[in-house]
Amino acid sequence: MPNVAVIGASRGIGLELVRQYAANGWRVYATTRTPDQPGELGKLRGDIRLHHLDVRSDTHIARFADAVSKVALDVLIHNAGVLNSRARASPEETAEAMRINAQAPIATVSALLDSVVASEQKTVALLSSIQASGRPRPSSPDLYGDSKGELNKRFRAIEPEWRARGITAIALHPGYVKTDMTGQHASITPAESVSGIRSLLNSISPAQSGRFLDYRGKDVAW
Ligand SMILES: NC(=O)c1ccc[n+]([C@@H]2O[C@H](COP(=O)([O-])OP(=O)(O)OC[C@H]3O[C@@H](n4cnc5c(N)ncnc54)[C@H](OP(=O)(O)O)[C@@H]3O)[C@@H](O)[C@H]2O)c1
């Protein structure tokens, strides 16, 4: 069966990705900041291997890349992200959001690239957000949207290199999903979002690499 890696799997969309892929017989490499207290992640059934990874740590990223260096990762999903909706974020908060939402996805995928290239499907998805559309926008800053916009900018710059190695990579909006990040007033459940994401990633073609798609496969405006 194929292998999938889910970066940031402890809660929300990441946890549901692990649940659904494992239930469908995939081997899942799931990363969490708290492998000793995995919570719901530890209760899931299937071929699930937990790894310790805080995406702010270059050491953790390198250690995980080393741990899966002999594994062919068919699908790699960078899901970890943080919401900071404060109108005026401090410089420290801004740096933290940029680190986790914009820098870490590119750094993590870059470190894992050889494992993806070694696989059959060679698919990468970076969890972005529709709030990135039209951002960064310095005239009316919104830290979350700007950090995801910065991710999109970095993704578009590096994606041709990944594509040249045979990888199909997309920026992905998961929908407005009921999780700790959004609350229960959001529109869809993690199960609905992840069903769409799985079906999109299962049927994606190399011609779609470099696009910004939502969980139903529809284009999102950059
Ligand atoms: N929910 C939505 O409607 C929505 C919409 C658009 C985009 N997204 C994006 O989708 C992704 C998942 O969102 P969600 O709604 O599932 O959020 P969530 O419930 O808040 O979960 C966030 C996940 O990211 C992990 N994470 C945060 N900081 C991390 C770090 N430094 N290192 C490693 N893992 C870290 C968390 O781990 P801990 O448990 O250790 O904190 C958790 O597993 C995010 O990138 C988010 O921006 C969500």
Structure description:
By secondary structure, this protein is α/β, with parallel strands linked by helices. It has a single domain (3-214), classed as NAD(P)-binding Rossmann-like Domain (Rossmann fold, 3-Layer(aba) Sandwich). 40% of the residues lie in helices and 15% in strands. The chain has six helices and seven strands; from the N terminus they run βαβαβαβαβαβαβ. It has a seven-stranded parallel beta sheet, with helices on both faces. α1 (12-23) packs across α6 (190-203), α3 packs parallel to α4 (91-117) and α4 packs parallel to α5. It is globular. The model has no long low-confidence stretch (mean pLDDT 97). It binds NADP nicotinamide-adenine-dinucleotide phosphate. The site of NADP nicotinamide-adenine-dinucleotide phosphate (NAP) has 28 residues, from α1.
What is the domain tally? 1
Q: What percentage of amino acids are in beta strands?
A: 15-25%
> Ions, cofactors, ligands: which are bound?
NADP nicotinamide-adenine-dinucleotide phosphate
Provide the CATH top-level class: Alpha Beta
Structural class: alpha/beta
Task: Give a short account of the largest sheet.
Answer: 7 strands, parallel
The CATH superfamily label reads NAD(P)-binding Rossmann-like Domain
Average pLDDT figure? 97
Number of helices: 6
Topology overview:
Elements: E1 3-7, H1 12-23, E2 27-32, H2 40-43, E3 48-52, H3 58-67, E4 75-78, H4 91-117, E5 123-127, H5 143-164, E6 168-173, H6 190-203, E7 212-214
Helix pairs in contact: 1-6, 3-4, 4-5
